[in-house]
Design brief:
Layout lengths: L2 H15 L2 H21 L5 H21 L5 H15 L8 H15 L9 H12 L5 H12 L2
Helix pairs in contact: 1-2, 2-3, 2-4, 3-4, 5-6, 5-7, 6-7
Amino acid sequence: MSKIEEVRKDMVAAMKAGDKERKATLSALLSALKNKAIDKRADLSAEEEIQVILKEIKQLKETIDTTPADRTDIFDECRQRLSVLEEYAPKMMDAEEIQSVIQTVLSDLGIEAPTAKDKGRIMKELMPKVKGKADGKLVSELVGSLFSR
């Protein structure tokens, strides 16, 4: 079952249950998925569906980060929407899993003592392996920490 079908089914269930907030969040996600499919003029692959979901999650996190502290209503709404969207996102890799992939990439490239000059090569090899499975910001921080040792 594609994510579009899954989201549509869950949205109908939320409507029947009278859960307006969940229905609204799923409706927005469904429209984002459909818009991406329309832009592509073809059905989305599973990877593309995940990218759309992760983009929606990233936008919500940015909204939370930029919202003034006194606007608790926006915080609450964004957190609620975030919890719904995270049900559809794949499990993200933690720092330890990312570190093991980084070590694999370093050994593949034959780099024993990485320097700042190597960061581009490392990231070029690493990102396709963790794309959609790890937060890019965290990956960059972990690779950057190799040089400060």
